[in-house]
Design a protein that fits this description.
Layout: E1 2-5, E2 8-11, H1 24-67, E3 70-71, E4 74-75, E5 82-83, E6 86-87, H2 91-97, E7 100-102, E8 108-110, H3 120-149, H4 156-168, H5 171-181, H6 187-192, H7 202-229, H8 234-242, H9 247-275, H10 279-284, H11 294-302, H12 306-330, H13 335-346
Antiparallel strand pairs: 1-2, 3-6, 4-5, 7-8
Helix pairs in contact: 1-12, 2-12, 3-7, 3-9, 4-7, 5-7, 7-9, 9-12, 9-13, 11-12
Length: 347
Amino acid sequence: MAVPTGDSTVATAPTAAGDEPPGRGVRAREPKRRFGLSARRAWLLVIPTLLVLAVVIVYPVVRAVIMSFQKDEGLDAATGMFVQGGSAGFANYTHWLLQQCPAAGGGTMACPPGTLGSQFWGSVGITVFFAVITVAIETGVGLWMAVIMGKTFRGRALLRAAVLIPWAIPTAVTAKLWYFMFAPDGVVNRVFGTHILWTVDVWPSRFAIIIADVWKTTPFMALLILAGLQMIPQDVYEAARVDGASAWQRFVHITLPLVKPALMVAVLFRTMDALRMYDLPAILTGGSPSTATLSVLVVDQVRQGFNSASALSTLTFLFIFLIAFVLVKFLGANAVRTQEDQRKVGK
């Protein structure tokens, strides 16, 4: 093919159909090569973190599951001889779920009252009771505190810092603080002129734990809800004021619907935290059966046998996972969807 160049014509070799000019294929392959390099570099940065998580999280979980199918070492109830354990099958799980304990002559029997095996379902009920009551109160009070802290007024920064103080105190210190306050001659009885045994009686000890937990973790709920409130555009409130909506109507029809995703995430986080409550019952009441949660029961069982405690910890994990799944699946407690909803509102 001849290409005119002014006064002369330069002959060029014909090109086949589909051929690309020199250099275009190289430039097209460069983004793919760069993407491949970036992906490999990303994996090199992520792999150390995955290895740490595998060592810290995956291995203990897998190890606990394996141990849960083995017998505990100790004295055989039938022979009185020391045994080194062995395969237990599902005996450790039936021990807790069916409350079956080894019998003296072999076989199993119903766990006698007062033993750890007989406290499983009672601990489940106590755990759920604490979780439902504390999360409900903390959600209501936390929403009220978040609405107040979201307003503009003098001293707002000081108020937010003061609200954080209970949450910043370690839980063990909080439990000990309330232990002295709920003592027979403590501040609570002196202020109200009562003689209630807050850390001994069944229901007073439960209410004492609820009060201490609400005081401790309500600021956490308030902060999470406040983050959701600050994502709501102020233009929406201004338009509602122009239309004549009252403060209550703005709260019901604007604040609650738009803060609901963040509220559900806060409920999810706090529920999972409440289901593994240990410090408050263990310190306030010494882990008595009337306030023993699943975490307290696991720690008590560890002192008697690791393998049976592994089965109990596995059941506790599955129990918390099931509740978290229900919250995410049916109540919409999804952090990813929360961010997407907030972006849509902001547009």
